[in-house]
Design brief:
Distance between the termini: 117 Å
Number of domains: 2
Radius of gyration: 42 Å
Number of helices: 14
Oligomer: single chain
CATH topology of the largest domain: Rossmann fold
Protein name: Rhoptry protein ROP9
Length: 353
């Protein structure tokens, strides 16, 4: 018979307690600080702990020391004691903000600022369409009258020679003495790309029926017609023709009963260097619109630019001429000149058309 070891007997009752010691130590290490500490993150490093506290603060709230200073300042104001607020900056978002600072803060977060005109009224900014924002512009005195006349005969659904007569009547009443027309997708219904082969009938026979009638009516009333095109005269090479020869071949192949008084064919990017634009009398690169072309028409005809009508399918060319005080008609539809698809440009801005 064996007797139990006294030491084993003495400590056998505490074996379960010893096995529970790691759990007890874990409780006092982690759980107890969470339960009894005022901080929600007592086990984090001090720097992280401060950051966690700052995350809970509303944006723009001052530190505690500044709050106490503000509280003391408020108390002194209540007691009637003067305080010098100019020497110390006031934290943003406190009650000591000025109205201007409050407006700036409201603007930063996207709230409309209020003006002195009264509550609920937004402060009006500068007008978008002024000479400061768009540059100076002149207005042809007859644009609205011409636009009304064109819209009137279009509303009557006039076609053919009747439409041609009504159109020329309208421009004559507006004082127009010369017509300057684009070539591609204006006089013709397609785009030549600036040049064409001498036997390319798809281009040479593409003069639109309404443009033929317009040319005949203008000739009958002794109103000359010039062509202003980006088809450059320098592109006449080999079996390809451009500018003047291209226009003349088109009028012949299309059996037109009128002639062009002149053709001015210049592609502005070809005249961006001094050795290219200086021989033309320019002191700077050629403008990218039709302004130089129309100047040549004015010189050749002796007619001022405000008596010249521009026909063009490029709205930008029309708008730029309108801004300079000219009269322009936009040829829309991308199928060439059609009395039913023309529109007088009356506003000196592309976004206002």
């Amino acid at each position: 018979m064996t007797h139990p070891n006294p030491l084993q007997t003495r400590f056998s009752g505490s074996a379960s307690l010893v096995s529970r010691m790691p759990l007890v130590r874990l409780f006092f290490t982690i759980a107890a600080p969470l339960l009894f500490s005022p901080s929600p993150f007592p086990f984090l490093p001090l720097k992280t702990h401060c950051l966690a506290i700052q995350l809970g603060k509303p944006q723009g709230s001052p530190p505690a020391s500044q709050k106490e200073a503000i509280r003391d300042t408020g108390v002194s104001h209540q007691k009637g004691e003067p305080s010098d607020s100019s020497s110390e900056p006031k934290p943003q978002g406190t009650v000591a903000e000025t109205p201007g600072a409050a407006s700036a803060a409201a603007a930063e977060v996207g709230r409309p600022s209020r003006s002195s005109a009264g509550p609920g009224k937004k402060k009006r900014g500068p007008s978008l369409f002024t000479e400061e924002t768009m540059g100076p512009s002149k207005r042809h005195p007859c644009l609205k009258t011409l636009a009304a006349a064109v819209e009137r005969f279009q509303a009557q659904h006039l076609t053919g020679r009747d439409a041609a007569k009504a159109f020329v009547d309208a421009i004559q009443e507006c004082g127009i003495q010369v017509v300057a027309s684009d070539y591609d997708r204006t006089a013709i219904s397609v785009h030549s790309g600036g040049s064409a082969r001498r036997d390319d009938l798809s281009v040479l026979e593409a003069l639109t029926p309404d443009f033929k009638l317009l040319g005949e009516e203008l000739t009958r009333r002794n109103i000359p017609i010039y062509f202003v095109t980006f088809s450059d005269k320098g592109e006449n090479r080999g079996d390809r023709i451009a500018a003047g020869p291209l226009v003349e071949a088109t009028l012949k192949a299309s059996n037109a009963n009128f002639e062009a008084q002149g053709v001015f064919g210049y592609y502005p990017p070809f005249y961006s260097e001094p050795e290219d634009y200086a021989p033309l009398g320019l002191s700077a690169p050629m403008p990218t619109d039709k302004s130089f072309h129309i100047q040549q028409v004015s010189k050749a005809s002796g007619v001022p630019e405000d008596k010249i009508l521009l026909l063009d399918d490029d709205r930008a060319n029309c708008v730029n001429f309108c801004r300079s005080g000219g009269a322009a008609i936009h040829v829309s539809g991308h199928e060439g000149f059609d009395f039913g698809a023309v529109r007088v440009v009356v506003k000196p801005s592309l976004i206002m058309q």
